[in-house]
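Why Integrase? Reviewers of the renewal asked for a concrete example.
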Amino acid sequence: MLRHQSGGCDHRKVVLSLVYRLVRGLFALLAVLVRTDLSKDVELLVLRHENRVLRRQLGGRPRWDHTDRLLAALSRLIHRRRWTEVFPVTPATILR
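Here is what the prediction returned.
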């Protein structure tokens, strides 16, 4: 935590840092909302290509480890309506 020379917190720096993070988050949200469908489609094509390259390097299908299985099991605890809030990529996004 940020400290004054007298040993206390510098509240102005903390507030300024918080405001900075909020403004950055708002700009990032605005950038996502303004993006065109074309740019989203291009990003999906790039991600699919990266997946193909990685699968070629692995020599087949990826192998699931215990952590992957645990995360899949935990994802079942989250109600389907909240998946878009929690997971950035949904099955519908992948299928498109």
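The mean pLDDT is 77. This is the kind of structural detail the renewal will allow us to pursue systematically.
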